[in-house]
């Protein structure tokens, strides 16, 4: 799977599609439509014509940005993986562990509600044995997890957080936050809601962050919960 890489001139190249189009309005419409179609119908049940119809664009517009359905599918996966994980790439070892983990968790919770279809596409890809992502997981994702685990171990060795298994911590954050996208029908039915509401999202973020941080020997950053509830 193609992922973000730095070119020699420092420009980020993203995914198997034309660079420089990420901010293009039509690009975003097509990507969102693709998320919805792949989530509803799976890879095999989705066609570029269905995506074009949902996006309200002509089929040739799809191929202007993406050379094939395969590349569009990879772009959906590429986009959500980086939205999930890019925040941790901006953090250094001098940062406060509680602040970093709290922000990472809250960003993941937010993305569960803003990009639920993309999360479901990723989940289906993994459940099916990662036919398109296996090499990426074996190489780039494995390397990313090891790098972040080493980063967390620095904080542990410094006594700034409890001695937890850093890899399992990353898995826990991934799974607990993505649950609300992948199993939204179950969650909403049990909670007797038609859709997620802002107060629910804030409560979910507070709960997950508080539980995980306490398990790491940390406290929820002062004022974070109240600020998000009133902001």
Automatic annotation (TrEMBL):
**Known InterPro entries for this protein?**
DNA-bd_HTH_TetR-type_CS, Homeodomain-like_sf, HTH-type_TetR-like_transc_reg, HTH_TetR, Tet_transcr_reg_TetR-rel_C_sf, Tscrpt_reg_YcdC_C
What GO biological process terms are annotated to this protein in UniProt?
negative regulation of DNA-templated transcription
Q: Which keywords does this Swiss-Prot/TrEMBL entry list?
A: DNA-binding
Q: Which GO terms describe its molecular function?
A: DNA binding
> What domain of life?
Bacteria
Q: Name one Pfam family in it.
A: TetR_C_3
Q: What Gene3D superfamilies does this protein map onto? A: Homeodomain-like, Tetracycline Repressor, domain 2
From the Swiss-Prot or TrEMBL record, give the protein name: TetR/AcrR family transcriptional regulator
